[in-house]
Design goal:
By secondary structure, the chain is an alpha+beta fold. It has helices at 2-6, 124-127, 130-143, 151-170, 176-182; strands at residues 12-20, 44-51, 56-62, 71-76, 81-87, 94-96, 116-118, 174-175.
């Protein structure tokens, strides 16, 4: 959005990534509290993206987290800090001493227990963006306009993810322009 406002294009130039399969290396008793059960896929990953304007972004992903899903975005700039805690959010805190009456109550993805202090989702479909995605789709059909997140963006995301996997496998920085010429 910032680049569009300035009338410029900012793209991802390169990616350095590392992935791993952590939970299969744990003994069964060490996994008793983990909810994720990956079979043949990594359960931990990091990626550092370098953009065409020299800025950087670091992405961390880990399925081995106690206390439910943790989704957040932190942005640090030369003149601002933005922190968005998607889950767990601060909009609702609950405390239940036991689970009586809560057997069929959904609180949050991968939340181990409903007892004690928790921060469940409020309006999960809105917070996760599902409602906005559906609204954009319907408005596109109704107004005959292009979507906010179009194929071009989807392709860029796919290219960055592919570069990250190549980087993790080969243990090197991957230039997206070089990767495109190799394919």
């Amino acid at each position: 959005m910032e680049a569009a406002a300035k009338g410029i294009s900012i793209t991802v130039d390169s990616v350095v990534a590392d992935t791993g399969m952590v939970s299969p290396r744990l003994a069964v008793e060490k996994k008793s509290y983990l909810r994720a059960r990956p079979q043949d896929v990594e359960d931990f990953g990091t990626a550092t993206l370098t953009f065409s304007d020299g800025t950087k972004a670091t992405v961390f992903a880990n399925d081995n987290v106690l206390g439910g899903v943790r989704n957040y975005v932190e942005v640090y700039t030369n003149d601002s800090t933005l922190m968005c805690r998607i889950t767990p959010s601060d909009s609702l805190e609950t405390y239940f001493p036991d689970q009586i009456g809560l057997e069929d109550v959904y609180m949050s993805e991968k939340l181990e227990e409903k007892t004690g202090w928790n921060r469940p989702f409020v309006s999960e479909s809105i917070t996760r963006g599902y409602v906005s995605q559906l609204q954009d789709f319907l408005e596109c059909a109704l107004e005959n306009r292009p979507p906010l997140s179009d194929f071009r963006l989807a392709r860029q995301v796919g290219e960055v993810l592919y570069a990250a996997y190549v980087s993790a496998e080969e243990g090197r920085r991957v230039s997206l322009s070089q990767l495109k010429s190799e394919c």
